[in-house]
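Q: Could you fold this chain for me?
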Amino acid sequence: MADYAIGDLQGCFTPLERLLERLRFDPARDRLWFVGDLVNRGPQSLECLRFVKSLGERAITVLGNHDLHLVCVAEGLEKRKGRDTLDDVLGAPDRDELVAWLRTRPLMHVEGGFAMVHAGLLPEWTVAKARSLAAEVEAALRGPDYRRLLEKMYGDKPDRWSDALEGIDRLRLVINAMTRLRVVDGEGRPVLKFKGEPGEASEAWVPWFDVSSRKSRDHTIVCGHWSALGLVVRGDLLALDSGCIWGRELTAARLADRTVVSVPCPPREGPED
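A: Sure. Below is the predicted structure, expressed as structure tokens.
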């Protein structure tokens, strides 16, 4: 039995099939952890959703920013973007079932010394605190008034955590951190506009995982989202977005021993984001 964490799929189902062949994945004994962004930009979002959903308890996936975008588009709350490749999902006969399943995925998963989240955690959050905050978002997304959250989910403010935050401001900041975070400024505030490589960031900005006072260092954080960062394997971090959608690689890491397996992906055009 093995648990494998896999980087951002973004609709790249054929590379996933090749990767699972390399891993000799057996759904009867193994589990797959997906870091979010199952959909969008790639050509096979529908296949990715159907496959991961079909695995049932053998797959754990957390919500990414592209997953939430699909939910909002399907609910008629957001317009499609120019580079979206979501038509196959939106036109599928099982569209409503797939979107509802996606909406009810966790925002964070914690197990066995690992904590999986799509993007990152704010420095002042312990893993226990972050898991509690994720549960607040999950309850809202799974509840009868989930559209109220989706309608007001987007925005870059507030940008500083406080336990006194309430309502949509509280939930929005949690979602932004866990699905969009790459770097923080000197006061620990997320800089959500930055999408480049770490060396391209302002000297005043630090990758969220390198903040010296970060309180989540007692777990290995498993994440994706930052394709320009690429693969990072270290004691407290498994960053697994190795840029499949941009023609690089799709990567899996066996959690028990950090063994990494990657397969090449077809070249694509356009800036990375």
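A (continued): Helices lie at 13-23, 45-54, 65-74, 87-90, 95-103, 127-142, 146-151, 167-180.
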